[in-house]
User: Fold this.
Amino acid sequence: MKLVRYGQAGHECPGLLDGSGRLRDLSAQIRDVSASALGPESLQRLRSLRPEDLPLVAGVPRLGPCVGGVGKFICVGLNYLDHVREAGAVVPSEPVLFMKATSAVTGPTDPIVIPPGATKVDWEVELAVVIGSFAKNVSESDALAYVAGFCVANDLSERAWQLEGTGQWVKGKSADTFGPIGPWLVTPDEIPDPQALALWLSVNGAMRQKSGTDQMIFPVTKLVSFISSFMSLQPGDIISTGTPPGVGLGANPPTYLKPGDVVRLGIQGLGEQCQTVL
Assistant:
């Protein structure tokens, strides 16, 4: 099942894609694709609906972030071995965690806005995990039972703010528009193995990142279990699982986004994003 949120920013409606890829309205079924709709019982009820009985949405509306009211946006750094090498970092012995402000969340085709004073804005295609059930101290073997679905994320970064001066990843990752998610929230029944997905990103048509989630150092099950041992995970929380090699920071010379650039990215089975840089 592919769930979406569509419409004007801040006023999105819930929807789903039918078998032909047409957008159907879910407003009579749920208020939003957010915490209360992401539990197993709610998703099972939505899965039992006949999409052809739901109203068709006319036109081609804007798609918003595929999850509304995100509670925590937890990110994992240095989770692909080749990316660790291009960053000149040490291979971590356990997942490297940081937070991205939820005010960074935007839709999959909303523009990326370079903030005042930013000089090194970088791209990062990532598999994002959306939590559906309260999770605390869960085992790796049970971890996927707490997942509502998966989506594409672009973990945009301002490298100077992240790494120079006092550094601090959270301030380098949290500018407004630095967290596009979507286009769809895809439920686990359509993604039987989250460690077998191709992912890619291009800038102005030039391929920059191309890899697979099988290259993760720490898989999804490890990440959910590990994070839940330090904090409870709530429905609607997002875990962005790290990026493969090919970021602008790792280029020779380093290459960063500038106004007018077009960023496209996607993950197998999870759809594509496209953003213009302003």
